Amino acid sequence: MPSLLDVVSSRLATLLPSELRSHELTKLLAPHQHSLLLSQRRATLIVTRVRMFAFLFAILTPLWGLIDLMVFTYPLWPGLAACRLMACGAFVCLLLFYRPSGNLFDAYRAIAILFAIPTVFYVASHIMLGGHQLTQFSAAVATGYAFLPFVLMAGLAIFPLTLLENLVLASVLLLAQVAVGYLSWSTLNWPSYVGAFWLLVLIAGVTALASLSQLAFMIALVRQAIRDPLTGVFSRGSGEDILQLHWHAARRSDQALAVAFVDLDHFKPINDMFGHEAGDQALRDCTRKMLEKLRGSDSLVRWGGEEFVVIMPDTDIEQAQIAMRRMVEDGLGFRPDGQPLTASIGLAERCFDCVEDQRQLLELADQRMYLAKSEGRNRLCTADAPLGASA
């Protein structure tokens, strides 16, 4: 008998893109389960859309000032114009000086600045308008300022955000609406205010669904783009991106970073003698066994054919040797004829080998893998000579 949670999860899954797998649903709730590459690409997209939003607001914000000039009297319109110019300048600065870095915290800061600018303007303009006696026509125009929170809330729909991120940003806008109600407590039209607040909550729900839908599509597309279709591990292109990200992180914090180049021994005869389907099955079995022995922070990359790269952040040379021996101690699977599948492994580490960039680190591991092959295969090489058979 399925539990209520299982039923709810299955129902929710039908509302999301069919490409999204059931175990990926939790990635829609919070960002901590996102892979490094997904976080990087999502951060880049968020900042790009923040800049688009800032460009639009930088143009439209001062244009509305012409209406203020025609409708409001002195000294109200100069005060509103000054607020608009400051907001416009902030949007221009955000547009010119903020560039995508692939860092999620930079993306959070960008979207926080983007929504803080009009939110502060909304509260300031409300205080200014509340302090002046307005005519019937100018009061009607002033109601246009009340739509700004709804525009901002609807704007969240253009970002691929998790449920938690949506709740945080929507709560800030709702708190701003509460602050405006508090500032005009004595003259507040309660039925109108409560109706507007409820509408804002409904818009928040709709935009959350739109953001989650965007994120779901992005998760599926990134998975398809970064994974090897045969084995399910990272593809070479995504592996290069992962290595670059880990390299920069290791260099900033002066931490260890190990890379292992793994080449399966005598693999070509499997395809020649038993067919490519048998070779594909051997590769799938081998990658499954390797993944079972690696940490969650490690990355397994299919580099090409029967070659794999293992990226191990915050791992020194001794820890990397232990990890590689642990990976092969139970075997890497079997060949179609029942013989064990073995590998030649080259290992390099950033601090131990004093390398200057990630390409040199990878090339050094590749060279040591070839040294392991030349010395008889089925062994691990970490320096100028292999460490012995059976890795």
UniProtKB/TrEMBL annotation:
InterPro entries, alphabetized: Diguanylate_Cyclase, GGDEF_dom, Nucleotide_cyclase, Rev_trsase/Diguanyl_cyclase
Membrane spanning residue stretches: 50-67, 79-98, 110-131, 137-159, 166-185, 197-222
Q: Where is the GGDEF domain?
A: 255-385
User: In terms of domain of life, where is this protein from?
Assistant: Bacteria
Q: Which PROSITE patterns match?
A: GGDEF
What is this enzyme's catalytic activity, as reactions?
2 GTP = 3',3'-c-di-GMP + 2 diphosphate
Does Hydrolase show up as a keyword for this record? no
EC number from the UniProt entry? 2.7.7.65
Which keywords, in A-to-Z order, does the entry hold? Membrane, Transmembrane, Transmembrane helix
Is-annotated flag, keyword Electron transport?
no
The protein here is known as diguanylate cyclase
Q: Which organism is it from?
A: Stutzerimonas nitrititolerans
